[in-house]
């Protein structure tokens, strides 16, 4: 069964969310600071009533099932909602589904003990605290088998030592999820474990906060706020044994659960950003005039519009189809190829649409008075965060190629004379071999 329509009830919810985000939430992006800074009382006072409104509409934490306080709409509906929320920096926090907390909540829900859920997951779901996923190390990222951060057992505790970096929102986090080597003697796939480390634990040193592109970390500008990413040193950081998340040696499995969801959610929000760039491009095309008429009259402008529409719509369809597959299989492993494809397409589409929109805006387009440069930087960052494009292409290609078997014939199966020979043999009774046309 194929259906490209949103059900009528949920469409009403989306219509409400669209108006609410446009009229009430998007303006917050220009007056409030960092959504992850939960110590900012002024922001919280303004945002709490809006979060309450979202809850009363049944749209709070839509990435979660009812057992965790979400409505459990599934990934397709989440995708449709994220197409709206992705326009605004504050919207995901107002709707309780902001990354990276959403992914961190997902693994706490999957692997956490009741005590861990009560202490770390519940306040995270309630939007009271911020979390940090601390996996990448300065010397290794795309290949996690090379990670060196070590956790050693000492009595009833684990003691963590080593360095992580690009730990997003480290400075605002109440706790860190840290991936560490617990058994260097076995394969990394069995020798690494995930720990919950409260931020107040002695020995956590944020060496510095790293910004993306040229703006300083945490900078708030008209084009948005630059997230910052912690370079974190763990020095004899001691956590009790009950702060191991999941079983010992299970870090890779946990990381895959987290990153599968995280990647598709980024893609859903990216549809919104690319659409925003596209709308601005079209508005500019019909508004800006030269002595030969509006930009929209030029074929090279029309090509930009047509290419962008095709990029955006095909990306959106791939995202929605992948979301649908996740709902169907309820298992990220079965959708790895599709998520990898979405992850590869995501930075390209955002970059290309933003770049074309930028050009049509001329000098204004490259200025910090329009969002295009920021979008292009975001595209570059999204091509690296959660694994670089190259690695996802490899995953995709390997999974696709695994479905094919080699032939041992001299010519490939599509070799036309061979195909013709087989066809003639199959229909020999009816076809005159000599008179056959091809
Ligand atoms: C905005 C942003 C936010 C992030 N947030 C977090 C976070 O919260 N927590 C966290 O732990 N990490 C985070 N990261 C880190 C991110 O996960 C890593 O940057 C990513 O995994 C790549 O690792 P690396 O930077 O060490 O690149 P490397 O592993 O050094 O790779 C560099 C380049 O080498 C090439 N390459 C690498 N491997 C292959 C291969 N197998 N085949 C072909 N080419 C290859 C690719 O071109 C790749 O881009 C974030 C990164 C960004 C940009």
UniProtKB/TrEMBL annotation:
Record key words, sorted: FAD, Flavoprotein, Oxidoreductase
Alphabetized InterPro entries for the sequence: Acyl-CoA_dehydrogenase, Acyl-CoA_Oxase/DH_mid-dom, Acyl-CoA_Oxase/DH_mid-dom_sf, AcylCo_DH-like_C, AcylCo_DH/oxidase_C, AcylCoA_DH/ox_N, AcylCoA_DH/ox_N_sf, AcylCoA_DH/oxidase_NM_dom_sf
Transmembrane segments: none
Pfam family, one: Acyl-CoA_dh_N
Domain Acyl-CoA dehydrogenase/oxidase C-terminal, first and last residues per copy: 252-401
Cofactor(s) needed by this chain: FAD
GO MF annotations in UniProt: acyl-CoA dehydrogenase activity; flavin adenine dinucleotide binding
Any one GO BP annotation for this protein: fatty acid beta-oxidation using acyl-CoA dehydrogenase
Acyl-CoA dehydrogenase/oxidase N-terminal domain ranges (all copies): 38-128
Subunit and interaction comment: Homodimer.
Family: Belongs to the acyl-CoA dehydrogenase family.
Name this protein carries in UniProt: Acyl-CoA dehydrogenase
Lineage: Bacteria, Bacillati, Actinomycetota, Actinomycetes, Kitasatosporales
């Amino acid at each position: 069964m194929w259906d490209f329509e949103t059900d009528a009830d949920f469409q009403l919810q989306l219509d409400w969310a669209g108006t609410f985000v446009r009229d009430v939430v998007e303006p917050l992006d220009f007056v409030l600071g960092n959504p992850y800074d939960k110590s900012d009382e002024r922001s919280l006072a303004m945002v709490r009533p809006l979060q309450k409104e979202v809850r009363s509409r049944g749209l709070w934490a839509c990435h979660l099932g009812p057992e965790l306080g979400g409505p459990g709409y599934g990934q397709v509906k989440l995708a449709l909602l994220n197409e709206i929320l992705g326009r605004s920096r504050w919207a995901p926090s107002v709707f309780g589904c902001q990354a990276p907390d959403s992914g961190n909540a997902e693994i706490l829900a999957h692997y956490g003990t009741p005590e861990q859920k009560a202490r770390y997951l519940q306040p995270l779901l309630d939007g009271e605290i911020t979390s940090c996923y601390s996996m990448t190390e300065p010397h290794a990222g795309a290949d996690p088998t090379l990670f060196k951060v070590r956790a050693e057992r000492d009595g009833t505790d684990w003691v963590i030592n080593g360095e992580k970096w690009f730990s997003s929102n480290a400075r605002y986090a109440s706790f860190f999820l840290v991936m560490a080597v617990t058994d260097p003697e076995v394969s990394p796939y069995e020798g690494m474990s995930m720990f919950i480390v409260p931020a107040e634990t002695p020995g956590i040193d944020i060496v510095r906060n790293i910004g993306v592109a040229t703006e300083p970390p945490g900078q708030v500008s008209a084009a948005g706020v630059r997230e910052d990413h912690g370079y974190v040193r763990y020095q004899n950081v001691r956590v009790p044994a009950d702060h191991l998340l999941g079983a010992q040696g299970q870090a890779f499995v946990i990381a895959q659960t987290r990153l599968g969801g995280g990647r598709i959610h980024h893609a859903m929000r990216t549809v919104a950003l690319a659409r925003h760039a596209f709308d601005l491009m079209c508005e500019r095309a019909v508004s800006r005039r030269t002595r030969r008429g509006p930009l929209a009259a030029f074929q090279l402008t029309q090509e930009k519009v047509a290419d962008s529409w095709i990029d955006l719509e095909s990306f959106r369809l791939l995202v929605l189809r992948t979301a649908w597959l996740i709902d169907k299989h309820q298992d990220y492993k079965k959708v790895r190829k599709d998520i990898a494809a979405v992850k590869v397409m995501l930075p390209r589409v955002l970059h290309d649409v933003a770049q074309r929109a930028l050009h049509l805006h001329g000098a204004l387009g490259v200025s910090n008075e329009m969002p295009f440069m920021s979008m292009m930087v975001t595209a570059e960052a999204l091509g690296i965060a959660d694994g670089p494009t190259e690695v996802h292409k490899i995953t995709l290609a390997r999974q696709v190629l695994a479905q094919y078997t080699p032939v041992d014939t001299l010519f490939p199966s599509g070799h036309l004379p061979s195909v013709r020979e087989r066809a003639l043999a199959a229909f020999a009774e009816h076809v005159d071999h000599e008179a056959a046309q091809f």
